[in-house]
Design a protein that fits this description.
two-stranded parallel sheet, 54% helix, globular, mainly alpha
Length: 135
């Protein structure tokens, strides 16, 4: 979690305004048609697992228990089982070299991730942190 733009706790309205003003502008400048803050969280967790970090470490980084991490990211662990461990920076650079988004084209974050071999997360309402804080 991170503080709002003034260093305080996010309100639902503040989060939505930030998402519309800042996050969507960043997506557009990156040439990504659609995405949610939750997608970045999932990418972060997936990259940690790709590095070979253990489930307890990833769970601590995400702020929840290992059981929830296994339920949510178990498919990533299975997909990476026979893959070599790769530092996150190297995985990102490798993806940039092989999957450049030509100027003027747009893809969703999920499409971009799927092209890199990551399966889209099947979202469940009880796990979706994209909604921001509960009012």
């Amino acid at each position: 979690m991170f503080p709002d733009e003034r260093g305080g706790v996010w309100t639902a309205n503040g989060f939505e305004k930030w998402r519309q003003r800042r996050f969507n502008a960043l997506l557009q400048s990156a040439g990504v048609a659609a995405g949610r803050p939750y997608d970045l969280r999932h990418s972060f967790a997936s990259l940690l697992l790709h590095e070979g970090r253990d489930v307890i470490y990833v769970a601590r980084q995400l702020g929840h228990g290992a059981d929830l991490t296994l339920r949510t990211y178990g498919h990533v662990i299975e997909e990476l089982e026979d893959s070599p461990q790769l530092p996150a920076e190297e995985a990102i650079e490798q993806a940039r070299r092989t999957h450049v988004n030509p100027p003027g084209t747009h893809r969703s974050m999920v499409e971009s991730a799927e092209e890199r071999g990551f399966r889209a997360l099947e979202l469940r309402p009880d796990l979706d942190s994209n909604q921001g804080p509960t009012p």
